[in-house]
Amino acid sequence: MTNKVKHVLGISGGKDSAALAIYLYNKYPELNIDYYFCDTGKELAETYELIDKLESYFGKKILRLKAAEASHVNKPFDHFMELFGGYIPSPQARWCTKKLKLEPFENQLVKDDLSISYVGIRGDENREGYISHKTNIQSIFPFRKNIWSEDVIRMILNNSNILQLEEITDSIVTKNKLDIFIETINKNVSPQYPQNRKLNDLLTLGIVEFNKIVFEFLKTTKMPLAYEEIFPLIENDEVLIRDDIFRILEESGVGVPAYYKKVEFEVDGRKGYYSRSRSGCFFCFFQQKIEWVWLYEQHNDLFWKAVKYEEAGYTWMQSEKLTDLIKPERIKQIKLDHIKRTERNAQNQSSEFLLDTLIEAEGVGCNACFI
C-alpha cells in the first residue's frame, strides 16, 4: 500500500451517480477521479448509452469492470448463477451485489490502494450508502449535508475524543461561533443526547467548520484522507436534492437516463404512467410489480429472458412467478393499483418529477448497487 490516494466514482447507470460524476467534474476539476462501471452483462441498453454519453462529456474512458473474466461463461451474472446452482439472488441473499459490484470494485480497481470513493446519495434521502470493510477505502457523500460516512462520524463523536475535538475546534472556528461550538462538542453522546442529534447540532452551527474539524481529526488517523494535504469538498456546504439531479443532467446535455421516461398506459378508461425507477440489471429483484409490467411491455425480449431464470425452480418475487404476473387480469390489477397509489400520494405531494418520486419511494433501494 502506498500513501498516494486514489479518487474513484462508480457509475451505476442511474441518475444520481451520473449527476454526481458531472457535478464533481465541473466543480472540482483538481480532483483526478477514476470513473468506473461494474458491468453485470445484464444491463438495459439505456444504461450503456448513458455510459457512452458520460465518456464523451468527460473526454475520458470510464473503466468497465467485469467479474469472473476468466470464466467460460460469457456474462458475469450467468457465471455466478451457474456457480450457485440456479439460485436467484434476493433481498436476503444478495450475492449479485457482492460478486458483481463490490468484489470487482475492491479487488480489481482499488486493491490495496488508499482510496476515496464518492457516493451519490442525495440530501433528501434517508439512507446510508456503501461503506467498505476494507480500511483503505473511505466513502464520501458530496450531495448530503453530512458528507462523512457513519464509521467516521461514530469515531469523531466518540466521547473519548472530546478533548481532542475541543483543541481542533479552538484552532479552526472563529470567535463569534467558538463558544457555542465548544459547548456542543463537550456534550457527551448518551441515550438522552444521541449521536445523530449531536451531529445535526454541529452541522447546524456550521457545515464548513464541522468539515474542517473532521478533516483535521482524520489527519491523526490512518484513514485515506489522512494522507491528503487538502480536500476541497470540506469547503462545500451545498445540499443537493432530486430536482437538482435532473437539472444537472439536463444542463450538461447528457440527459436523464432513457428508462426514467414516463410511458402512458390506459386501463378501464383510466390513464396512468410507468417507468423504471432505478438502474441495475433488467431483472432486479428489487423492482416493483409495475416495473415488471413495464419490462414486459417495453422490453419484452428481456422479460422472457428473466422468465427463463425461473426454470430452475426459484422466482424473482417470493409471492409470484413472472408467468403469473403477466396474465391479462393480473396486469390490469397491477396497473389499477399503481394508478390508485399514485393518485392517493399525489394529493399531498407536488413536484415536476412526482411520478418518479413516488415510484422510488415505494421501492426498496439496492444501496450497494450505487457504489
The fourth-level CATH homologous superfamily of the largest domain is HUPs
Computed structural class: alpha/beta
Largest sheet: 5 strands, parallel
CATH topology of the largest domain: Rossmann fold
Helix tally equals 15
Count of separate structural domains: 3
Outline the low-pLDDT stretches.
351-371
* Alpha-carbon distance between the two ends: 22 Å
User: How many strands?
Assistant: 7
Question: Could you give the topology of this structure?
Answer:
Layout: E1 5-10, H1 15-27, E2 33-38, H2 45-58, E3 63-65, H3 76-83, H4 95-110, E4 114-118, E5 137-140, H5 150-156, H6 162-172, H7 175-185, H8 195-205, H9 207-218, H10 242-252, E6 263-267, E7 270-274, H11 289-298, H12 300-309, H13 322-325, H14 328-346, H15 354-362
Parallel strand pairs: 1-2, 1-4, 2-3, 4-5
Antiparallel strand pairs: 6-7
What are the main properties of this structure?
371 residues; alpha/beta; Rossmann fold; 5-stranded parallel sheet; two-stranded antiparallel sheet; 15 helices; 45% helix; 9% strand; globular; disordered C terminus
Q: Briefly, what is this?
A:
With 371 residues, this protein is an alpha/beta fold. Helix content is 45%, strand content 9%.
Please give a structural write-up.
By secondary structure, the protein is an alpha/beta fold. The chain has three domains: 5-144 and 239-252, HUPs (Rossmann fold); 153-235, no CATH class; 261-364, no CATH class. The protein is 45% helix and 9% strand. The protein contains 15 helices and seven strands. α2 links the parallel β2 and β3 (63-65). α1 packs across α10 (242-252). Mean pLDDT is 92; it is low at 351-371.
